[in-house]
Design brief:
Order of helices and strands: HHHHHHHHHHHHHH
CATH class: Mainly Alpha
Helix content: over 70%
Number of strands: 0
CATH superfamily: MetI-like
CATH architecture: Orthogonal Bundle
Shape: elongated
Number of helices: 14
Number of domains: 1
Low-confidence stretches: 1-15
Mean pLDDT: 81
Strand content: under 5%
Structural class: mainly alpha
Largest sheet: none
CATH topology: MetI-like fold
């Protein structure tokens, strides 16, 4: 009986990634978003070699200079090269976005799996989750940064904690639906252990929505970091991030609006690209939507 039912039980684990590549290639908007995001990641990784100047070097005699051959995007209020700070700022902003997305998905997935499958755990966890979701995310992040101190890891943790409850609720809902399916009942009938059921049969069903949620968390983290920096509650102001660059330039918006325009454009395009790719991945990897995607 075990040998006959095992292929049926394992069938829920198969995901096709080819529809995603085909969808990316057939949709020009998604393709453009993917190319932009790849370019931003490469620029962030190669910032030490691409940046024309030291992003931390102060030259007061060159403050608020317009674009020129030496400073392609001009300089800020402290004489620092704006282009160099944008390139280095991509490293911190993307790292915070990716780190917050990864941490929130991993923590939310682990908690949500147990909460959705074990009713005893569910009763306790969901009350805690509801309490955390009652506090606005930005307010909670500001409180954590104010108590612990501002650093890259602190800001990343402060952004991650408000996102974990949302991931937990998503995973829990998927598990509550999937545990009633026939392949889970078959695994239980075969005497499969609870960890194996969670790992091999329930967790793969959460991947499509988690991909979308992870992309939203990444985009939201980049935006939240910018908001925290703009409010003065983010990373050290001297550290080049897109949010810090906008915070430094807000006092000089009337005389030099590009100090806010360029980092704001980077933030907007990056968030838009991440969300578009997340939606495309959801459409291509979700088994219920795969046939619709392939038919396009």
């Amino acid at each position: 009986m075990s040998a006959l039912m095992e292929p049926y039980v394992e069938s829920a684990l198969r995901f096709e990634f080819r529809p995603l590549l085909r969808y990316l290639g057939s949709n020009p908007v998604i393709t453009l978003a993917a190319l932009y995001l790849v370019a931003v990641v490469l620029v962030a990784l190669l910032a030490p070699w691409l940046a024309p100047h030291d992003p931390l070097y102060l030259e007061p005699t060159l403050r608020l200079r317009p674009a020129s051959a030496e400073h392609l995007l001009g300089t800020d209020a402290f004489g620092r090269d704006l282009l160099s700070r944008l390139l280095y700022g991509a490293r911190i902003s993307l790292a915070i976005g990716a780190g917050a997305a990864l941490l929130s998905v991993v923590l939310g997935l682990a908690i949500g799996l147990f909460a959705g499958y074990l009713r005893i755990v569910d009763a306790v966890v969901m009350r805690m989750v509801d309490g955390m979701m009652a506090v606005p995310g930005v307010l909670l992040a500001i409180s954590i940064v104010s108590l612990v101190g501002a650093s890259v890891w602190t800001v990343m943790l402060a952004i991650t904690l408000p996102e974990v409850p949302r991931v937990v609720r998503l995973v829990r809902a998927m598990v509550l639906s999937a545990r009633e399916e026939a392949y889970v009942e078959a695994a239980i009938t075969l005497g499969t252990s609870t960890p194996r059921i969670l790992w091999r049969h329930l967790m793969p069903n959460t991947f499509p929505p988690l991909i979308v949620q992870g992309s939203f968390v990444c985009a939201s983290a980049i935006l939240t970091e910018s908001v925290l920096s703009f409010l003065g509650a983010g990373i050290n102001p001297a550290t080049p991030t897109w949010g810090n660059i906008m915070a430094d330039g807000r006092s000089f918006f009337r005389i030099m609006p590009e100090l806010i325009f360029w980092p704001g454009l980077c933030v907007s395009l990056t968030i838009l690209s991440i969300n578009l790719i997340g939606d495309a991945a959801r459409d291509a990897l979700d088994p219920r939507l795969a046939k619709r995607v392939l038919a396009r």
